[in-house]
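Notes from hallway chat w/ T.B., transcribed later so I don't forget. T.B. wanted the structure written out for a chain they're using in a teaching module, and asked if we could keep both sequence and structure tokens in one place. Agreed to drop them here.
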Amino acid sequence: MNRLDNVVAPLAQPAPTPTHRRGTTLPPHRLPHLPGQVAIPEQTRTPGPSAALERFNHAPADIARQTLLTCLRSLRWAHRLTDHRPYPDLDALLAASDEAAYDLTSADLAEALAGETLPTLPDDTYGVAHTALNAAHAAYEARFGHLFVISLDPTHPHDFLNRTLEGIRSRLSNDPEEERVVVAEELRHLAKSRLTSQLTATGNPAPL
């Protein structure tokens, strides 16, 4: 049994979520007529998964995979998450995402990297900054042979440039194997961040 199975096996029995107080079911004027002091237990309500997660859980497999591929361009990762539906809540899905991402091979990571794009800078970023960033990206690609990826969540958009430049400069000193480990971790974080956005954003950005 692999680590993903250990995560998703209990998913058929959702854990109870925080309780919601509802008050007593009997009007106050009837309480004195009860024999002795009777404690009326709190009544709880366990809400189901969010509407977006429900749509994901019950969508046709090809639609669910397409949604997942907008978060990480790895077919192996998308297939595994699709095959282990349904998920009782977002935390369970994110845990499964982590486990599937940990098991990606070098070929899977290369596939995922091929679908990535450079981080988007704010529109008002000045031209010299773009030049500096392009030069840094070129140096990184020349050393490692693939695009630089970094998870910028929860960085403020105005700090994207500095965070990206700092990341490139610090990681240029890695050897290829060290950088492969870092890249896998950044892709894992990106996948979780995008999944969260897909299933918690207002409206319905996911193709479900």
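Follow-up for T.B.: The first helix runs from residue 3 to 8. Might be a good example for the class.
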